[in-house]
């Protein structure tokens, strides 16, 4: 099953999916660009639905303004399935003292948010979001990933990984898969377009993990032209069934409905046609529909 915010759904009901995005996101390191407006979130979700979208996976983890209370209403209003996340991001994204407070009980927090509810809500998370560092895994990242592995083994929930500038994905697999025995099919490696090393991507695919690409990205615009080439290299090597694509809208400015864009609709209005022209409709269907249905399915 897939754990959406209004209840568990069969994988074949997920539909056309933005596999990595944010309806709500708030951190002290990005003042003035918070995603914290419910009406704007509804407008962006409606715009995505108008482009053909049916599901959005919100990777916003614990402590960064997920607005779990608002997610069921947005899903009901728009008809778009939403998946929420537990987990923990890089330490510097949180207020002073927050990480030290929650670190000793992370596995307990993750498990509760996956099985009981987020905060005072009855909204349960559908994935565990963690984060690596730039080319290395620091002690914080390793602590969080160990807690994530514990929660995964207790629930079967998938683990989604923020890779700083697309790096250290091999180190993540060394830890989560080789050391902590998380099945590679339960690991989603994010932001790989930000480090467009096609040979490196092939080596990750060979290890059995999901490969998630974001596009477009204001913070990493220089890598956008490489996105389709990276997808093509993996598809040509037989890994079209391991690819995911998301918008990763992290600021109010980047929204399509209420900001400067391009926002979530860009995935389907612009990138999907490019993928179809370059790689064919079958690969596009895999990236947006059949792959997410498998990647976000819980396995025990």
TrEMBL record:
One of its GO terms (molecular function) is hydrolase activity. Zn(2+) 2 binds at residues 129, 162, 191. Its cofactor is a divalent metal cation. Binds 2 divalent metal cations per subunit. Keywords: Hydrolase, Metal-binding. SUPFAM superfamilies: Metallo-dependent hydrolases (SSF51556). It holds the Pfam family PTE. The modification N6-carboxylysine is found at residue 129. InterPro entries: Metal_Hydrolase, Phosphotriesterase. Zn(2+) 1 binds at residues 20, 22, 129, 248. Belongs to the metallo-dependent hydrolases superfamily. Phosphotriesterase family. This is Phosphotriesterase. The lineage of its organism: Bacteria, Bacillati, Actinomycetota, Actinomycetes, Propionibacteriales.
């Amino acid at each position: 099953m897939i754990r959406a915010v209004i209840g568990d759904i069969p994988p074949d009901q997920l539909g056309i999916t933005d596999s990595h995005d944010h309806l709500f996101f708030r951190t002290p390191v990005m003042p003035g660009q918070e995603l914290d407006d419910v009406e704007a979130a509804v407008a962006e979700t409606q715009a995505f639905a108008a482009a053909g979208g049916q599901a959005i996976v919100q990777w916003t983890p614990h402590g960064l303004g997920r607005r779990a209370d608002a997610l069921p209403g947005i899903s009901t209003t728009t008809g778009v399935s939403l998946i929420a996340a537990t987990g923990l991001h890089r330490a510097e994204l949180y207020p002073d003292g927050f990480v030290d407070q929650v670190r000793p009980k992370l596995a307990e927090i993750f498990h509760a948010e996956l099985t009981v509810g987020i905060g005072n809500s009855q909204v349960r998370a559908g994935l565990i979001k963690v984060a690596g560092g730039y080319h290395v895994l620091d002690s914080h990242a390793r602590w969080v990933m160990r807690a994530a592995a514990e929660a995964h083994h207790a629930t079967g929930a998938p683990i989604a990984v923020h890779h700083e500038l697309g790096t250290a994905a091999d180190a993540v697999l060394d830890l989560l898969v080789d050391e902590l025995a998380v099945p590679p099919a339960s690991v989603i490696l994010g932001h790989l377009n930000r480090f467009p090393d096609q040979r490196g991507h092939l080596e990750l695919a060979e290890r059995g993990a999901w490969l998630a690409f974001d596009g477009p990205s204001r913070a990493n615009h220089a890598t956008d032209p490489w996105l389709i080439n990276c997808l093509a290299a993996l598809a040509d090597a037989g890994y079209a069934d391991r690819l995911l694509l998301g918008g990763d809208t992290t600021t109010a400015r980047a929204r399509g409905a209420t900001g400067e864009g391009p926002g979530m609709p860009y995935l389907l209005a612009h990138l999907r046609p490019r993928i179809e022209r370059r790689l064919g409709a079958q690969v596009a269907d895999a990236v947006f529909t059949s792959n997410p249905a498998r990647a976000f399915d819980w396995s025990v």
